[in-house]
Amino acid sequence: MDEKAPSGRLPERDRPWVMRTYAGHSSAAATNALFRRNLAKGQTGLSVAFDLPTQTGYDPDHELASGEVGRVGVPVAHLGDMRALFDGLPLADMNTSMTINAPAMWLLALYGTVGLEQNAELARCSGTTQNDIIKEYLSRGTYIFPPAASLRLTADVVAYTLREMPRWNPVNICSYHLQEAGATPVQEVGFALATAVAVLDAVRDSGQVPAERMGDVVQRISFFVNAGVRFVEEIAKMRAFGVLWDRITRDRYGVTEAKQRRFRYGVQVNSLGLTEAQPENNIQRIVLEMLGVTLSRDARARAVQLPAWNEALGLPRPWDQQWSLRMQQVLAYESDLLEYPDLFAGSHVMTALVDEIVTGARVELDKVLELGGVVAAVETGYLKSALVASLAERRRRMESGADVVVGVNRFVETEPSPLTAAGAEAVEQVDPAVEAAAADGVRRWRADRDGAAVDAALARLRADAATTANLMPATLECVRAGVTTGEWAGALRQVFGEYRAPTGLAGGAGSGGDPGIAAVRERVTATARELGSGRLRLLVGKPGLDGHSNGAEQIAVRARDAGFEVVYQGIRLTAGQIVAAAVEEDVDLVGLSVLSGSHLAAVPAVLDGLRAAGRADLPVVVGGIIPAGDADTLRAAGVARVFTPKDFALTGIIDDLVTVIRRANDLP
Question: Is residue 207 part of a domain?
């Protein structure tokens, strides 16, 4: 029990949580300047966003990196980039979160090397590498290696930090993207805890950590969660997380100290729930979502980062990030929230809701464990299918109006928003020259280093990967030799292989009770008959490195329900692969999904490829976070339709696809 002042307040005000903004773009130097500005405004921790080539283990001059460099984060291709990223920032005195998963070991090695160059004691460095690869197979798509090899890398990082960086959180179990992919609160808790169990089992079974130190491992495992707008339910979810984590770590791993079993988490509130329509409404959504992880003192987040109001429109500007930081500061410093003990202790409503989530999540966790654990549940497609089905049900509720989204499916009448009156200026613009500069930079880096040292370091990395040795020493040798991100990942690809995760479409059923689907199905059948084909064929393509596949999968599910034959090969395809599939499968329409902002590079590459293959007649549509000006450019280049987040009615989109096919074939 907390000692309370006579008024019921705490005797001393709580310290605020760590306040971050998720930041990174264009180049290491530009991001360093952004970090400095944000810290000067009162931000108390860094949260580094890396671009997609870095996240997926490619250098800026790789074919798959085209159009993606510096878009959704900062490119870090080698030690020189990491030096520039943290230039003048004292790493030993800062709390740094790095959202990096498949190459987490590599980025941590770069970070630690820069820290040592600053004469920082690694034992004093505090921060987090996300390093949760499982959710990448399920929702975000920035995986590289198969699940078992990825867990091996995670376990190696945990063992290394336990020895060398005891204040570092080596893994941040991330349920954030599970919610974006459709997870209910029960699924989010159950599936995230299944991932945590897999990580802890891998560490325990690796033989690198003595049994008596498992409590120290547990104490450094953190979580990264999503908070939606249903903030009462989100409070209950976080309390349920804490209850189950305490039980699992006590009963499965024998951790006896309550302090070590405490559930520790950071949060970014739900970016996917932000809307392109009436974007000013996103401000109140962000505030409500922040309350879900701060109101309950017993389940309060250790660190909070908020999205910006315009993330459904494009890349936020520094001013937009400042607005989100100020929201946190107003709550922490102007309100009286931190002066009181837990506001929900003894609440019958909250207790019942927590118990309901705990019971359901335990069922989900046990189901995954019965399948053989989270790796087996990924490889069989069970988890992905469950998420696709849940997201389809969520979409059905929104389309039917059962779930209200203000400004989207209700209260749509609106005045013009002054926030977006500036058009494209309402979001950050990435200079196209950034990519060329990064590609030139990595080529110069390769030319200036000791080639023999690089070859020796990569040879050691491959040799160690073929054994059970901890890969951190070989990785650190690669850093010092000047190996690049793409070379490090490429060496491990040679040993571990690459992986294509299940799409989950087999378990998806999206139309539900939509009364409009029957009419669209009739149009699909009639159009196929008029074209003399058995069924209309739709290719859904994800060009480039954008792994956010939720929207593409929902379109694929709904199109299939409407009678289309759907060709969907998953994420991370080159333009050439998409064109080849379109020609070989003789499809009637190509639909491209791009959410990373690389549409002006990725889409024309596919159009050019189709023309070169003699299929300039094949219609192409595009969906993604695409500003109005860019949409005009794409249409001028030959795209038949451009869909953005405001186009939420999936059956209506499928009906538009039929219209596109009919017009392309001169049908009335």
Answer: yes
